[in-house]
Amino acid sequence: xxxxxxxxxxxxxxxxxxxxxxxxxxxxxxxxxxxxxxxxxxxxxxxxxxxxxxxxxxxxxxxxxxxxxxxxxxxxxxxxxxxxxxxxxxxxxxxxxxxxxxxxxxxxxxxxxxxxxxxxxxxxxxxxxxxxxxxxxxxxxxxxxxxxxxxxxxxxxxxxxxxxxxxxxxxxxxxxxxxxxxxxxxxxxxxxxxxxxxxxxxxxxxxxxxxxxxxxxxxxxxxxxxxxxxxxxxxxxxxxxxxxxxxxxxxxxxxxxxxxxxxxxxxxxxxxxxxxxxxxxxxxxxxxxxxxxxxxxxxxxxxxxxxxxxxxxxxxxxxxxxxxxxxxxxxxxxxxxxxxxxxxxxxxxxxxxxxxxxxxxxxxxx
Length: 366
Prior knowledge:
With 366 residues, this protein is of the alpha+beta class. The protein has helices spanning 2-118, 126-226; strands spanning 249-252, 255-259, 264-268, 271-274, 280-282, 287-294, 300-305, 310-320, 327-328, 333-337, 347-354, 357-359. The chain has two helices and twelve strands. The longest helix is centred in the first third of the chain and has 117 residues, at 2-118. The protein is rod-shaped and about 155 Å long.
C-alpha cells in the first residue's frame, strides 16, 4: 500500500512541477506577444516617420528645382543688365569726351573774342570777327548745356543700370545658396529615409523571429500539456553520470537569461556548448528517437525518449543522422553540430527534461 501511496505522491509532484513549467512558458509566451506588439508599433511609427520624411524630401526637391530655374533666369537677366550697363557706360564716356572738347572749344573761342574785342580800336575788321566769335560761343554754350544734360541723364541711367545689375547678381548668389542648402537637405533626408527603411527592416526581422519563437513555444506548451500522464517511470539512467553529447565549452548556462535581442528575460532550458560546425553529436544514453526534424528556432532538432521519464534534446544541428522511431545506443552518433534556427553562434543546445520539465544538464553529466 505504501508503495502505491509513494508512487501516487511522485506522480502528483511531477504533475505539479510540470504545471509550474507550463505557467512559466505561458508567461514567456505572453512576454513574447507583448514584444511583438511593441515591434508592430515601432514598425508603424517608423513607416509614418518615413512617409513624413519622404514628403519633406519631395517638398525640398520642388524648392530646389524652382531655385535652379530661378538661377537660370537671373543669370540671363544678369547678362542682359550687364550688357545694358556697359552700353550706358560707353555712351557716358562718349558724352563726357564730347563735353570736354566743347568746353575746350568754348575757352578757345572766348580767348579769341577777348583778343578781338581789345584790338578792335586798331582794326575795324575785328568788329565783324567779334560778332562771329560771339555767335559761335553762344552756339557752343548751348551745345555744352545739351551735352551736360545728356551726360547727367547717362550718369543717372548708369546708376540705375548698375543697381539693377547688382540686384540680379545678389539675387542669383542668394538663390544659389538656397539651392546648395536644399541639396544638402535632400542628401540628409535621403540618408534619413535609408536609416528608417533599415530600422523598419530590422523591426520586421525581429517581429518575424519573435512570431516564430512564439509559435514554436505555443506548440511546445501544447505538447507539454499532453505529456501529463499517470505512467510510472524509474527516472534512472543506465549509469549514475551521463556522457557529454559533444566536446566543447559552455557558452550559455542553464536558467534565467536576459535577451538583449528580444528585450525580454527568458529561461534557458538547457546549456549551449560552443563547437565548430560539423562536430559529432552523440546520444547521452540509450533510448528511442521521439523527434528528428526542423523545429522553429531550434533548427534541426533531435529528441530522445529514454523510456525512464527523461528526454534529452539536441538543437541547432547541421545534419541529422537518425529518424523518428529509431532505437539509439549510448554514445551513438545522432547528428552533426551546426548553426541552424535562431542561434547566432556555432553551438549545440542540449537539454534534459524530466517528464517535460527542464532540469539542469550539469547535474547529470560527467
